[in-house]
Specification:
Strand content: over 45%
Number of helices: 6
Number of strands: 44
CATH topology of the largest domain: Maltoporin, Chain A
Largest sheet: 22 strands, antiparallel, barrel
CATH class of the largest domain: Mainly Beta
Radius of gyration: 27 Å
Oligomer: single chain
CATH architecture of the largest domain: Beta Barrel
Distance between the termini: 20 Å
Number of domains: 3
């Protein structure tokens, strides 16, 4: 009754049915008891960190009966240094620390918080064992220091919880705090400050997340979700559903199967939280953007056997391009069941509905070049047909993540997901000026409906053990992916339009089919890896994998069918030296493969494209403050790349090779209380033959983001950030005849927290610079993102 009086609920259910459902679930859900923390908790003993050789300390968390506790939250703190961790299914988290006295806090659902002082010694070999007691009503949560933007561990590089400093490969992590402080709205936007990544590859593009890693396209085969394949050129994830974004640089087929040589992106979905979470958020911004979000979760009941999460979003928005909406409805429930301390099962699902339109293809004259007598083509120009065009996508997924820890130390883990995407697209786009004209744009109409079904399962077992001076972390697994794609595409010519004074309403002729195919892909892979550490200093990483990939393609236009059966062995070998100063030089050699579907002019199947990389680098984890730094040098070669047969233009040969080499520098730091930095630089030199650059690949990129929140004084709880992004010159075509100039963009944000509420204002491209993001030809250029300002009100209760 109270909710109905506050809101016109009938109108709400008609206009925003998902929002009404989310609000109803909030106010009808059972309440959770909240126990206030004591006003004056007992202080922990003083801490002190020395400059001695860092120690990889295994922390084992047990219940009162001695069983391992999965997912326990661990944090070692001292002053501004805060090193977090989380136990795996074996109840162990390995954390790298400098010798000294640390303040340790351990938390797990249903158990009392354990806080104590721990002295870390350089000669420690036995794991630190922490036994938690069952929680009582008087227990409270102790809040410890924040590591800010800094991530110290990730499963992406090894499919095990291993400190990043021990993985012989460059890995970047954009964590939850950075995602929220920048208020990102796309996965591309989340990656803008990560070196080696070309985000927003084609400028303003609402349909998909296009990206490149180290010069190689990673759109289709290079995007994973929770370690399982995700096709980003079918579906599109909303960052509000994500906990973090992990970027693994270089070939990674040894753990993930077919993948591009430049690396991959792993999207980590939000899970049910250990403590009660209730977040409501409303946003208003440029282009009449309106959005409401919710994120609820926590334990169900006092036993914490069950916990849940419900994340949702409703957005109605325009964009910088006329007649192009960016509307979304999303809901993502998750439920975790812990029947015993040794077993955890989390079921996750989501549904998302998107409504937008195609990107615009504008000629270089009037965008890239200032040579058009009619002037500059405005950035909001729409050259299609508003009454006919559409991009409507419905996507849904359902899956689970299960862990079980056996008494003998083995851990069994399995992920499964089924994903369905229904994409219905139609557009009218420009194909260059009509002959003799600098304002009439020729156009083509295209319909592109596509249906995707992906089923993936990954089963792996792990075991950690010590033998003499050696510590081993062994991983063995098998994964399977089944992908079915149906495409029915057609085209037709449409009357030209005046790009400077568009008049819409042209007739759309009947479509001529040009792509009607059914694709089935089955991939099986078995992998084995051993990460062994000698006397806390030398880490050897060896892994191998055998893949079997089967592709069946039916062409319904020509009534033909092709069958490919490829197998490939890939591997990785690496060495890391953990020094006493927190510096870790490393070297690795890794390989990858990608099947190439289809046949050549003579009916012969294509071979897989192979990649190999040598990488050498240095990682630094400071001993006395929170930070993580990586400097890497890489050289990647890709073979069996398709080129045109000079003797037969209708035939393709696999004789070309591509090289990418360069350097990447990345720094993440919590340099002072409330001050976080994220800086990066990458130099990527690509050679597609005869010295030509790979198109859409800037040679230089640099970025710096500084975020600060005052913790005391008159400005307490005020905060904000400022960022600068430089994207160097790139080439728009493979012949390198079209040069895309460099550009520099500024971003910023301010925010203020008052009790349980926070007000924020975020802006990207602060000075509204007009720039061309890329061109794929003189007729196909795309503008980059104009200034976008968003205000947000967030409330936690």
């Amino acid at each position: 009754m109270y909710l109905t009086q506050l809101l016109n609920f009938k109108w709400l259910t008609q206009k925003f049915p998902l929002l009404a459902l989310l609000l109803l679930s909030l106010f009808s859900s059972p309440s959770h008891a909240v126990t206030a923390a004591p006003a004056d908790p007992a202080p922990l003993p003083a801490c002190g960190v020395s400059s001695g050789s860092p120690v990889s300390l295994p922390v084992s968390v047990l219940d009162p009966g001695g069983a391992a506790l999965t997912g326990a939250r661990i944090r070692f703190s001292c002053g501004t240094v805060s090193v977090p961790g989380r136990t795996g299914a074996d109840g162990v988290a390995t954390i790298r620390l400098a010798p000294g006295t640390w303040q340790l806090t351990v938390q797990s659902d249903g158990f009392a918080v354990e806080s104590r002082a721990v002295t870390v010694e350089s000669a420690m070999k036995a794991p630190l064992v922490v036994s938690l007691q069952v929680a009582s009503a008087a227990d409270s949560v102790t809040v410890t220091a924040d590591a800010g933007y800094v991530a110290y561990s990730s499963e992406a590089g090894s499919k095990m919880d291993v400190p990043l400093i021990e993985v012989p490969q460059s890995i970047s992590v954009v964590n939850q705090q950075e995602l929220k402080s920048r208020n990102v709205t796309t996965v591309n936007e989340a990656l803008r400050y990560t070196p080696g990544v070309q985000a927003d590859e084609f400028g303003v593009e609402q349909r998909y997340d296009w990206l490149k890693l180290r010069g190689f396209t990673a759109d289709t085969y290079g995007v994973f979700r929770d370690g399982m394949r995700w096709n980003s050129l079918a579906g599109k994830m909303d960052p509000y559903e994500l906990e973090s974004v992990e970027i693994v640089k270089g070939p990674s087929s040894v753990l993930y199967g077919e993948a591009p040589p430049g690396g991959l992106v792993n999207l980590v979905t939000k899970r049910p939280p250990p403590e009660a979470l209730r977040e409501l958020r409303a946003q208003f911004g440029s282009y009449d953007s309106r959005q409401v979000q919710d994120d609820f979760g926590g334990p169900i009941g006092r036993s914490a056997v069950w916990s849940y999460r419900l994340t949702g979003l409703v957005r109605n928005s325009g964009t910088q391009v006329d007649y192009t909406p960016d509307n979304r409805r999303m809901i993502a429930p998750a439920l975790t069941w812990r029947p015993t301390p040794r077993t955890t099962i989390t079921a996750m699902g989501d549904w998302q509905h998107d409504k937008t339109r195609w990107s615009q293809f504008l000629p270089a004259s009037g965008t890239l070049f200032n040579d058009n007598p009619n002037g500059v083509i405005p950035v909001d120009t729409f050259v299609g047909e508003p009454g006919w065009e559409k991009v409507i996508r419905d996507q849904a997924s359902l899956g689970y993540m299960a862990d079980h820890h056996f008494a003998d130390g083995w851990n069994l883990h399995q992920n499964f997901r089924y994903q369905h995407v229904n994409f219905q697209g139609s557009t009218v786009y420009g194909v260059g000026f009509a002959a003799g004209s600098s304002e009439l744009l020729n156009r083509l109409a295209v319909t592109y409906p596509q249906w995707d079904d992906i089923s993936t399962v990954d089963t792996r077992t792990t075991r950690r053990f010590t033998k003499g001076a050696w510590e081993h972390a062994v991983l063995a697994g098998y994964d399977y992916t089944h992908l079915g794609t149906k495409t029915r595409a057609g085209f037709a010519s449409v009357d030209p339009i005046n790009v400077f004074h568009p008049v819409y309403g042209a007739a759309i002729p009947a479509m001529t089919p040009y792509n009607e195919t059914d694709l089935l892909l089955d991939q099986h892979g078995a992998y084995l890896q051993d990460q062994s550490k000698l006397k806390q200093h030398l880490v050897f990483t060896f892994g191998g994998r055998e893949d079997w990939a089967i592709d069946d393609v039916k062409n319904l236009i020509y009534n033909t069918a092709t069958h490919q059966n490829d197998s490939k062995f890939t591997g990785r070998a690496g060495l890391t030296w953990l020094t006493s100063a927190g510096i870790a030089p490393y070297f690795s050699y890794s390989t990858s493969f990608q099947p190439t579907t289809g046949v050549n002019y003579y009916g012969q199947s294509y071979k897989p494209s192979n990649g190999k990389q040598e990488e050498v680098g240095i990682k630094l984890q400071p001993l006395t403050w929170s930070g993580f730094f990586t400097a890497s040098f890489f050289n990647i070669d890709q073979t069996n790349v398709q080129t045109t047969d000079p003797a037969n233009p209708l035939n393709s040969l696999q004789t070309a090779s591509v090289n990418s080499r360069g350097v990447e520098l990345e720094a993440l730091a919590n340099v002072a209380r409330g001050l976080n930095l994220h800086a990066g630089y990458s130099l990527v030199r690509t050679d597609a033959g005869s010295g030509a650059w790979l198109p859409q690949t800037p040679r230089n990129q640099a970025s710096l983001l500084a975020d600060y929140t005052a913790s005391e004084g008159a400005l307490r709880n005020f905060g904000g950030n400022f960022g600068v992004r430089f994207v160097g010159q790139s080439m728009g075509d493979s012949a390198n005849t079209i040069a895309i100039p460099n550009y520099t963009l500024l971003d910023g944000a301010v925010r203020y927290r008052w009790h349980a509420a926070q007000l924020g204002l975020n802006a990207t491209n602060l000075f509204d610079r007009r720039y061309v993001a890329t061109c794929t030809g003189l007729a196909y250029c795309g503008y980059g993102f104009a200034r976008n300002v968003t205000g947000a009100i967030e409330y936690h209760f």
